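Lest this sound abstract, we think one record worth quoting, the chain in one-letter code, the fold tokenised, each line plainly labelled:

>
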Amino acid sequence: QVQLVESGGGLVQAGGSLRLSCAASGRAVSNYAMAWFRQAPGKEPEFVAAVSWSGGSIIYADSVKGRFTISRDNAKNTMALQMNDLKPEDTAVYYCATDPWREHLSTPGTTKSEYDYWGQGTQVTVSS
């Protein structure tokens, strides 16, 4: 079993920055892909960013490319999402997820169905 806990959400003005963190426990996730998704009220969950087990392959949604940076620290079993130049449309609950069954994937997945373990989410609200 893997437990994921997100932190770092909050209220920020447009143009501001936030840094989200995801801490994994129960099992090391260093060999597995990790990702961030988000869900705004009344909308379907949306892929944000994913990182391969080694950090060597990173994928971003077009909507956040150039503004968000995903990273991971395998020694600490953590992942982060640095969010800069935030926009009101970034308002959502952000979830971290991991795919703990496919070891050493060279390319991380970008769809919900590829991730089996999820955190409880952290709210990000961007005011205009």
In short: The chain has no helices and eleven strands. Residues 51 and 57 are 6 Å apart (CA to CA). The longest strand covers residues 18-25. The chain has a mean pLDDT of 96.
